Amino acid sequence: MDIISNSSTAEASQGLIDHVVEGKAGRGLGVTASDPITQTYISPCSPETLYGTQSLQCLAEKCQKFGHERCDRSSESSSSMVALNPRLPHQYLIESLAPRDDVDFLKPWKRYLYFFSSVLVMAACTSYLLYLCFRIHTTLAAQRANHTIYPAAWIFIVVEMASATPVLVNSLWSVFVLKSRGRQKLRLKGNTVPVVDVLITTCGEDEDTILNTVRAACSIDYPADRFRIFVLDDGRSSSLFRSVVALNRQYPNLYYRTREKIPGVPHHFKAGNLNFGLRETMTTKGEVGEFVAALDADMIPQPEWLRAILPHMLVDENCGLACPPQLFYNVPPNDPLYQGLDFFVHISEPIKDALGVAWCTGSGYVVRRCALDTIGQIPEGSVAEDVLCSTLLLGRGWRTAYIHEGLQYGQVPGDYGSHIKQRTRWTIGTMQAAGRLRFSLWGSETRRLTFPQRLSGLLYAIVTLLNIFLTISMFSLPGVLISGGRMVAYATSDQLRWLIRGCWLAFTLNRICEFSLFLPAGYRNGQRGTRAIVWMAPYHAITMLRVFVLPSWLGGQATSFKPTGSLKSELKERNPRERAPVSKRLKVILWNYLGCFHLIYILFVLAAVIVSSVRCSRQPTRNERLICLLTHAFWPPVSWLVYVSATWTPIIYALKPPTVADNEDLLERDPITNVAYPKESSKYIRNKLSNGYFEFQYSLITIYITSMFVGSWIY
Hints:
Elements: H1 10-19, E1 37-41, H2 47-50, H3 55-60, E2 65-70, E3 93-98, H4 108-114, H5 117-146, H6 151-172, E4 185-189, E5 196-202, H7 207-218, E6 227-233, H8 238-248, E7 254-257, H9 269-283, E8 291-296, E9 300-301, H10 305-314, E10 319-323, E11 327-328, H11 342-354, E12 366-368, H12 369-374, H13 385-395, E13 399-402, E14 408-410, H14 416-436, H15 451-483, H16 493-517, H17 523-549, H18 582-592, H19 596-617, H20 622-630, H21 639-647, H22 649-655, H23 663-666, E15 667-669, E16 676-678, H24 693-714
Parallel strand pairs: 5-6, 5-8, 6-7, 10-13, 11-14
Antiparallel strand pairs: 1-2, 3-4, 8-12, 9-14, 10-12, 15-16
Helix pairs in contact: 5-6, 5-16, 6-15, 7-8, 14-15, 14-17, 15-17, 15-19, 16-24, 17-21, 18-22, 19-20, 19-21
Protein name: Glycosyltransferase 2-like domain-containing protein
InterPro entries: Glyco_trans_2-like, Glycosyltr_2/OpgH_subfam, Nucleotide-diphossugar_trans
Main location: membrane
């Protein structure tokens, strides 16, 4: 293998440069384990100008990048390396461990079947849209034939559309499954590495949790003189200060910083803390980092964290930000609240990365400092500063990267209330970012966005807004049932038969699609995500109305922020020794956290089904009774049953909360560094067969629809 030495003569360096071919930026490394190459790379901003008065001029200059020459001695090594341009004082060596960065998450057989999901998604979406169009056609035909209007039928169509749209939008991203990301599993080798400033933001989290993250960051596999760690404490904890000072004796590159927050002056939450940290890095002793990394207080970085992320930025000088997924070690068995976010982590984000729309995940990311300078700083004015930051970078023409490896593990909120606060905070942040970016449609801050990038920003904002309409449609369904109006209109018996067949086809294709589409995340995790869309919708809807619509005298409220680790549990429901009694759990979840909406909805739906069924039982003939039941409460796929099952989640959670082991039982401590890392068994969600109710119900619905389909050919 050809590795350029720092002691190479100018003649040797010139000889190498004479053989390289100018390449296009952003094509990635383009190497395989059996095809080692040497690639030259010029940093976008030289060290002399990066942090001085000439930095803005440097940012305006075109970054240079050279191609590669093939090594004639490729048989000498089975790994791939990249060397920094010999004209610069350092060389960076990068090893390719695997052709895909997600080899640890997706087995080859799953990857093969997953590729079919692109076709299956198109088939499922097309069949549903055709079925919907036919529903509209038969309703219009029935109105013409009977010279009347069927408002209940139209409301029912809208209800079904509202419930299907969020799922359809999320699934449509999978059309691009076949688009290759071309992202390898890379490692930065050796001690010649870029300087990085690591910012750890804290705000009242458990001190042991913070210190474990700090120790893990100090103990990463990276030369100690090439990175600095700043603990940015918005909680102003004197105890944490003393602990960090004590650790500083062991890790001289560790610093504690806290800012003054003047009452009445906006401090911009986490974004403000990060910007404070950026200013501190410029005035603290030591070399200022070309790259800046950020960690949440509860996120434990793995030893290879920086060595895994930085190569993707070194081989692409236009990559302004690279981020790994946020993974968790304390997700409860069966993940009843869908806290693991597996669909987003293992399906949505890799697809977005392939389209050039990788978003910052909030922790563990690395950003190029000169890229950050082009947008001024970490954007303030939104509690979703991570998504806003990455979108602004894309709008400036930088690229972002999603590194699909397990490089950090943190904690999900430990109780129901904290989970709701976290998710509704994300909703607020999403809409704040969408408003500032004008839904990614126009404006100077998004002028260089590509079409997929604009589409992503628009669709995620629309899906968030749809929670309002989904909530309205959910409560409209039992109202329509009670009204007694004709919910499925048709002009002839043949039209009814074809409606049943069309519904069966759309449902069956969707079922098959789910088995393929959910493979990277796990089938059960994918189903939990679908149910979470339903039962979380009222929370998102109420939050948006309170924050963005209602005045204060009608219950409106200003944006509030509370970091996950500092949300204190009232119930401690996941600790079998300390959990509150069931009566208190029900009171807090139903009243304090508005689970009463879910209970009222369930009772409303069940009452509506009973009223509708009793009304149908009074029809004069057996055939009319069956058709009435079919076209009202039991029209496939029995939407009310799907809604009730999903909205039952908060109540069943209060009655039977999951048990989660103590942190020390989920972690194992390194005897040398004293860092507690997650056990292998804690890194994955444990699914138990005892939680098979939802799948049993889904299977019954499948059998019911199939029997209706068969019956449509017989009767």
